[in-house]
């Protein structure tokens, strides 16, 4: 394998990794899924508990959970007829927390801008 082939392989691997990262971001790009993850951070929950928390129908919650399971964000276990869901890896909550911090900073900046506009308009 020459240098050019090696570089091409690295580029292809990078593209696959970017695609995988984008898939995780697409999975997180839904407020219901973020809400579900937030409610799983302290431990496993049943589908019925998540239905109660979200106010959605069981079919909708199950669909969101299936998407998150397919993306590798959550896992499930069955005990009798009850299915419990939990985070596959708690690191995903660190990503959610960073996004939340970013949002708080952005909203704070926007508030400062809006406040300065109001002050300017009063004069």
UniProtKB/TrEMBL annotation:
SUPFAM superfamilies: Winged helix' DNA-binding domain. Residues 13-107 form the HTH arsR-type domain. GO terms for molecular function: DNA binding; DNA-binding transcription factor activity. The keyword tRNA processing does not apply. It comes from the Bacteria. Keywords: DNA-binding, Transcription, Transcription regulation. The keyword Transcription regulation applies. PROSITE patterns: HTH_ARSR_2. InterPro entries: ArsR-like_HTH, HTH_ArsR_DNA-bd_dom, Metal_resp_trans_reg, WH-like_DNA-bd_sf, WH_DNA-bd_sf. This is Metalloregulator ArsR/SmtB family transcription factor. It comes from Candidatus Chlorohelix allophototropha.
